[in-house]
Write a structure and sequence with these properties.
This protein is an alpha+beta fold and 133 residues long. It is 38% helix and 38% strand. It has helices at residues 18-34, 73-83, 97-113, 128-132; strands at 3-13, 38-54, 57-70, 87-95. The longest helix has 17 residues, at 18-34.
Length: 133
């Protein structure tokens, strides 16, 4: 059984409550774990305006999942996406070694940007009224 790296993006109906959206996201994570997948990264973008209307919706909730799983699992995952009526669109991509290398570079760059910049000491304030006397 061959295991590959995948990235799956879904657009969820944004008119749902936050708890309902979290339930759908948890359901996807659970399905990945239950079928021998290893979830590497979850990226929740939140509610965004769509470029064009999808099923009469102007706003969607974007969620991306990066995982490693057997190749047969993708059929089950996409079947669940099709049966879930609150998922407006989905796309699952197989990541090759070049895409994985770029993702590692991006995560390394973000880690460098996240380093704390040392605070600049504040110069002691001088009371202007005392100097004028």
């Amino acid at each position: 059984m061959r295991r590959n790296n995948y990235e799956s993006g879904v657009i969820i109906n944004a008119t749902l409550d936050d708890t309902q959206i979290e339930t759908i996201v948890a359901k996807i994570k659970e399905l990945i774990a239950a079928n021998g997948g290893d979830l590497k990264h979850t990226d929740l973008w939140g509610r965004k305006r769509l470029a064009y209307m999808i099923q009469k919706h102007k706003v969607g909730y974007y969620a991306f999942f990066r995982f490693e799983a057997p190749s047969e699992f993708i059929l089950k995952l996409e079947r669940m996406y099709k049966l879930e009526e609150n998922i407006l669109r989905f796309l699952t991509l197989k990541l090759d070694k070049y895409a994985l290398g770029e993702l590692e570079k991006q995560s390394a760059n973000q880690a460098v940007k996240a380093e704390v910049i040392p605070e600049i000491p504040i110069i002691a304030e001088v009371d202007v009224k005392e100097n004028e006397k």
